[in-house]
Please model this.
Amino acid sequence: MDYKNILLHVEAPVGTITVNRPDKLNALNAAVMAELSCALDEMDSNDAVRVVVLTGAGEKAFVAGADIGELAKMQPFSGRKDSSYGQEILFKIEQLGKPVVAAINGYALGGGCELALACDVRFASEKAKIGLPEVTLGIIPGYGGTQRLSRIVGKGRAMELVLSGDPVDAAEAYRIGLVNKVTPAADLMKTVREWAERLATRGPMALRLAKAAVQKSLEIDLRDGCELESSYFGMLAGTADMREGMTAFLEKRKPAYKGQ
Ligand code: COA
Model:
């Protein structure tokens, strides 16, 4: 695909997707969403990429939301369709067979917050402001925000954020568990890269199934979840990665995983 609103950078083992509309604070219009969808597929199928980082271009914003110019034109049926379409793209992040880390370098509002919520882990710069201001525009979050936020920070805090529409700063986001780590702005990408590189030393097949198992944990009951865990555990026993990981330990060397 010929990307116009997204930058794709692969520096193995990390692949970075940057939403690149800084003059509009990286707002998600239809073109960005279509490109994001393709970029996620590309990262998923590129074996050199073990961990994906998602961030926004410029100094100010991760993503300041869905494009309000486009939202303003929606009608009931098109609104429903756009919401479902966006949700499916964010599901791709959860279903991607490798970890996805959000590097929140500034405003993560509305659809930007929802994008970060769909990522597996969120690192934020001290300058980040995160929230779901949709009610201030007379709408509600439409890319899964009402559902994922409560799963991450609990129902009470999710209600507070969704009903008020007020953003939180990075320190508060960390306090309530909305982000995993906060760094000085200048250190964000370096910190994310270092962490991603650490993940990339882990068994790729194990990462894939560990992610899938944790994803399912809040959707199914404990007994079914544990059964799924046992299946994945057993599946990994048939992989070359498992043999390599255990042999490397016994031979006192670092494992060289192939993702097989
Ligand atoms: N959709 C479309 N355009 C957006 C946008 C969005 N969600 N967020 C920012 N922009 C555009 C602005 O319209 C402006 O464009 P212009 O220069 O052509 O006028 C540009 O990005 C810069 O934004 P600006 O508002 O001038 O920056 P600011 O520093 O004064 O304020 C924000 C930053 C994030 C507080 C403010 O842009 C904002 O409130 N954005 C909307 C956030 C939102 O409600 N998101 C949820 C949508 S459902």
Remarks:
- The chain has a mean pLDDT of 97.
- The radius of gyration is 19 Å.
- The pocket of coenzyme A is lined by residues 24-25, 27, 64-69, 107, 109-110, 133-134, 137 (CB under 6 Å).
- The first helix runs from residue 30 to 45.
